[in-house]
Structure formats: C-alpha cells, structure tokens
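User: I'm writing a tutorial on reading structure tokens. Could you give me a worked example: one chain, its sequence, then its tokens, then a sentence or two explaining what the tokens reveal?
Assistant: Sure. Here is the example chain.
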Amino acid sequence: MKVTVTGSLGNISRILIEKLAAHGHEVKVITSNAERAKEISELNATPLVGSVEDYAFVKESFAGSDAVYLMIPPNFASTDLKQYIRTVGEQYANAIKETGVKFTVNLSSIGAHLENGLGPTGSNYFVEQKLNELQDVNVLHLRPGMFLTNFYGAIPMIKYQNMLGNNFSGTVNLPLTHPKDIADAAFKAIHELLFSGKQVQYIVSDEKNGFEVTQALADAAGKSGVNWMEFSDEQLTGALTQNGFSEQMAKVYMVEIGQALRDGSFMEDYNLSKSRYAGGTTLQDFSKEFAMAYQYSN
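And here are its predicted structure tokens:
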C-alpha cells in the first residue's frame, strides 16, 4: 500500500515510518528539512522536501497514495498559530479531495470537540470538520492527551528549583499520552484499514493530577522535596518566553491549555468517551525513561 506521512522524523512519525516500511508499505515522507532526506531514505522511505504551506507541493505529495497520516508541524515563526493550523488543515483536506486518497488518519487532540476551544483545540475542531466534509473518504481522528515526553523540559526545574508547575492546581487531572502509543494506533489503523466513515479515537495511557505527576517524576529522579507550584497565567507566560518560547507558542500551546484544564472544557468529551480510548504507556512506565534522561542531563 502507498502511504504519505507528514511530520518528517518527529517523535510520532519516525516510529510510524519504521513500522510501515517494515511491513512492506511504500512510504513517502514530507519534511521541510533537506538534511533529513538521507535519514528518511535509510528508513526505506522516500523523502519529499517542501513546506506543508505550499499547496501544490502537498497535493503532489498525496497523489497516488492509498492513505495519508496527517499532522500539522509547529510553526515557531507564525504570528497567528491558530490560523496557521486552520490553513494547513484545510489545504490537507483539499489535497485529499483532489488526489482521491481514500483513508486518512489525522492527529488531532483532546478538546477538539469544541468549535471555539482554547489553545489549538478550536483550530483542531476546524480541521476535523473540514476532513469530515470529504465524501467517500474514511477518516480517523486521533485525539491524544498531554505528551509524557514534554516533561523532559521540566528536568531543570526539578533539578535546580525543586518544583514542577503550571497554571492550574495540582489537583487537576491530566490525560497523559506517550508519542509511541499514538504511532502504534496510527500504524494499526493504516496497516489494517478497518476504520470507515468518520471516527474519533482517544489515545490516553494514564490520568494523573499534578501532585501525582510531581511525586512520580521526583521519585524517578531520586530527588526529594519537589513540590507542585501553581503559577498565574502571567507568570507562566513570562517564564516560557524567558526560556525561548515565542509569545504565540507560549499562549496557544501552554497557557490556554492550562486554562482549558482549569475550567474543565479540555476533558469534557473525553470524560464521556473513555470507552473509546487506547494507550499503553503509563506514567509509571514513562518514569523509567524520565530517570535515564534526568541522569544524563546537565
């Protein structure tokens, strides 16, 4: 089967590419970085170098494929990330329509049930709807929770400040997902092609609150006296921009997601749909990976 994969060699796409190629699928991989081409070829896939904002390139990349895996890569230079997501997502949908692709696995997110959701969720809703409008195309929307691997970014905070925190209370439950579980779900869907129509699948491996996450990661690091700290939105924005985030990235991907967790909107549909989720890597499982990363960090 011929498959086009977006996302270059990201945490999800790399695993997906390896699995698809190992099972004999003919894989094309979209990447914006020409330096990735050799590495993609070494995975027995065909690199396609270009921008997902270039419609002609996207359309050509999808042509001849039986299935596509869609994800919208972050754009650190964008001054309007929400519009960027909508624009790229709509172009994906148009390219699928024009090239006759019949199966689509779309990386969305928890919260994408809300038309005007905070953070990227409202834009993900828009993209889901555009894909759902396609006639005679089978679409599976994967809605993961918060990536466990993002906690690697908290290693300096734990190591040097004895804390972990965000702009919500430590009592707030977090849906947790490992990227490899998303890759496994995407592979299964594309390899077996058992989905039809328009479907949603939640990919959540664990659910813990901030206090529980703090304790698990501190224990894994062998660090005592680590506490959860609740920041204000302004404090979190300031800390993120000081650490290299653009104001847009901080607002859309961190601050507004925290607000949605605080008001409960982020998880309301997931809480009603827990029978429709899959995963495998719990926080306890991930803590072993975290311990190794912590050990070798500066």
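What the tokens reveal: DSSP finds twelve helices and 13 strands in the chain. The chain has two domains: 2-145+178-203, 206-295.
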